[in-house]
Write a structure and sequence with these properties.
The protein is an alpha+beta fold. The protein has helices spanning 3-25, 29-33, 52-59, and strands spanning 36-44, 47-50, 67-81, 84-96, 112-122, 126-138.
Length: 142
């Protein structure tokens, strides 16, 4: 299959990845969990969270004071079959856990840059079957 034949699917997968991180940053955890297949797994902070309910429960423990922005780049989706696909991407994370102020938060260097891998399945629509990330660079406070 040529790139043009898969273009719509690749675009849909890229949007799915972007929705995931926007929902995370916006604290829309139920919406984020709904992007996963029923048996989808998110490998997060050394724990394999299986299923939307477990994912949503884990996210409820995030500090209310934490503000994050995940910048997703270099998304490369690969369609493997009519109902399976995968993608690789880089994710740069900015975070602030200070008192919430009006106006822009102070900006420091990114917290980390990671290599992420996702697997997708097509059910009623494309869903995340598995997501995992690994830090390539991490800010060290000295």
């Amino acid at each position: 299959m040529s790139l043009l034949e898969n273009g719509g699917t690749e675009f849909a997968l890229t949007l799915l990845v972007n929705r995931f991180f926007v929902c995370l940053d916006d604290r829309r955890y139920a919406d984020l969990a709904g992007l996963f297949a029923a048996s989808g797994v998110w490998h997060r902070q050394g724990v394999a969270l299986e299923g939307p309910e477990k994912i949503c429960e884990a996210l409820q423990t995030r500090p209310v004071s934490l503000t994050t922005r995940h910048l997703v780049t270099n998304v490369v989706p690969v369609v493997e079959s009519a109902d399976m696909a995968q993608a690789a991407m880089y994710v740069t994370v900015f975070a602030d856990d200070g008192p919430q102020a009006t106006g822009p938060l102070p900006m420091a260097l990114p917290l980390q840059i990671g290599d992420y891998r996702a697997r997708f399945v097509l059910r009623d629509e494309w869903r995340i079957a598995e997501l995992r990330g690994e830090s390539t660079f991490r800010r060290i406070n000295r």
